[in-house]
Design a protein that fits this description.
The chain is of the alpha/beta class. It contains eleven helices and twelve strands. It has a domain of about 250 residues: Vaccinia Virus protein VP39 (Rossmann fold), CATH 3.40.50. Strands 3, 4, 5, 6, 7, 8, 9, 10, 11 and 12 form a ten-stranded mixed β-sheet that branches.
Length: about 375
């Protein structure tokens, strides 16, 4: 009996070791990471939740899951590909948008590991394809999809030839006339300067959405400065160095427009929306509200209805959006902790002290009141 129990135990232990060796994940620093791959972020529930929160934030300030203007009158989409789909949350949001518009669409998610839940139970016509983005071609036919969405690849694919290969493949599998969308977020924090003017020629509805959400449309002329907050200055420097070492882009939003505009033989009608989401109530907004509590932002001219929240310049929706942006930034720094520890030269005890001071400053001390913003963007083009 003891021998039998020992045999079972030995067999079970060996099985666990075999499963561990074959798993695509490995535990490091108390987080789950992809095994033998240079991806710098963990692949565990907290990080997936952060990515979902970032997707929800981006689609909320845009007002839609598809960033490009709808062009479905003559040929509605039937096949959508989400590259680097993660949990598939964007596909579920896009499904809701398209279904509401009367379109029944098949979604395909592609990623190196299967992290998505059962989207089929949510009524999404969904298929997952497992594939390493570093290996081309992608496992799809030419002209297979009506819409291809490439999301948040700046932590995945190095700049230069690797990112160009992904763009080429995304274009190849897109049908003629189909829409390519690229979404990303800058990982360095800048401060927007007081009272930025609306971009020249801004769409009135788009500008009204920015006013309603308390965000700012970004154009080449939007005035920015370096982050004022000391802790965000620290994390900016460490993130810059850590990503530079891996040839990843710390500010991908500054690169994507030019990349798409260079594809003159395959893409046309390049457009974009870039948005700055402040990480809290801005000092100059509060000062304006204190001087005149009934004063409305310049956007009143765009017929945007808003009410000043009690004791501040923001509506509840605006305050919620900004707090969510702050959480996304804090959680990103937390997910990058091993890399930032490495480049900062801090030991664990020093890091924990710095982390505690940062949290107190940003969450309790309103340390991001000088224009510090999370910058997100979506770009689109049609295949020739």
């Amino acid at each position: 009996m003891d021998a039998t129990r020992g045999s079972i135990s030995s067999s079970s232990t060996q099985s666990t070791k075999d499963e561990s060796a074959s798993s695509p994940f490995i535990l490091r620093h108390g987080r789950r990471y992809l095994r033998d791959l240079p991806y710098p972020l963990p692949c565990d529930l907290p990080e997936l939740q952060r990515q979902n929160l970032q997707t929800l934030l981006a689609t909320s300030v845009l007002g839609q899951a598809l960033g490009s203007p709808p062009n479905f009158l003559t040929r509605p989409p039937t096949r959508v590909l989400e590259v680097a789909c993660g949990s598939g949350y964007w596909s579920s949001l896009c499904h809701e948008q398209l279904e509401t518009a009367g379109h029944r669409v098949t979604f395909t998610g592609l990623d190196i590991v299967h992290l998505a839940g059962s989207l089929e139970k949510q009524g999404v016509d969904w298929k997952f394809v497992q594939h390493d983005l570093r290996k081309v071609p992608l496992p799809f036919d030419d002209d297979e999809f009506d819409i291809v969405v490439v999301k948040d690849l700046s932590f995945v694919v190095p700049v230069g030839a690797p990112s160009q290969r992904i763009l080429d493949e995304a274009t190849r599998v897109l049908r003629s006339g189909g829409t390519l969308e690229m979404w990303d977020t800058d990982h360095l924090i800048r401060s927007i300067l007081p009272h930025p003017p609306p971009p020249p020629g801004a769409n009135p509805d788009v500008y009204k959405r920015a006013v309603t959400t308390g965000t700012f449309l970004i154009s080449p002329g939007t005035p920015f400065a370096d982050a004022h907050n000391k802790f965000l200055q620290d994390s900016n420097g460490w993130i810059q160095e850590a990503l530079d070492r891996r040839k990843l882009a710390p500010t991908p939003c500054t690169l994507i427009s030019q990349t798409l505009l260079q594809e003159v033989e395959t893409l046309r009608d390049v457009g974009y929306r870039r948005i700055a989401i402040p990480l809290g109530e801005l000092r100059w907004e509060r000062e304006a509200a204190d001087r005149n509590p009934t004063k409305r932002r310049e956007s009143e001219s765009a017929k945007g209805k808003r009410s000043v929240a009690e004791g501040g310049a923001l509506t509840e929706e605006q305050a919620s959006i900004r707090y969510t942006a702050l959480l996304v930034v804090i959680q990103m720094i937390e997910s990058l902790e091993p890399l930032l520890l490495e480049v900062s030269g801090k030991n664990q005890e020093e890091w924990q002290r710095w982390w505690g001071w940062m949290m107190a400053d940003l969450l309790e001390g309103k340390g991001a009141s000088n224009g510090e913003c999370l910058e997100i963007g979506v770009w689109w083009a049609h295949k020739i």
